[in-house]
Please model this.
Amino acid sequence: MSYELPKLPYAYDALEPVIDAKTMEIHYTKHHNAYVTGLNTALAKHPNLSLTLTEMLTDLTRVPEDIRTAVRNNGGGHYNHSLFWEVMKPGGSNKPQGKLLDALIKAFGSFDNFKDQFSTAAKTRFGSGWAWLVKTEKGLIVTSTPNQDTPLNLGTPILGLDVWEHAYYLNYQNRRPDYVENFYKVINWDVVAKNFS
Model:
């Protein structure tokens, strides 16, 4: 099984000024593409491996040991970025509605409380990693993961924010908090709601 770089659902400059065109182009064509290439190179060593990427990342012990780290890093990078591009759109959308909003209020008390927890997870992730909103059997949770690790062992990630420096450094330098706060301006809550349903 081999994987391909998914089509970006908007132009490189579509999310400006939140994410500048040069950052988007490098992030997508260089970083994400490198994860796809690395994943395919690893999987080529085991052509009979029939697990899906989600199955592999949910339980890495099912992945042959000689490619486990490559699948964790590159497969995680591919999975995480594929979700990241989807949950953004030019101009964003207003806060979530309907069942997703109800679930956020149930889990966090209010939409603003969710934003506070999600922002804190993103701002305080030491080094490189991700902040997540995850659908679990018990409801929604906010968490973060290091590097390209996924939260698939906890449930289904429905919103993710990349806080690796390559995601924001050209525009924000060391001001990760500004990048995190601006992310809300481009969230596509319709896609997040679809991921939730």
Notes: Strands lie at 129-136, 139-146, 156-162. The chain has two domains: 21-86, 98-196. The chain has a mean pLDDT of 96. The radius of gyration is 17 Å.
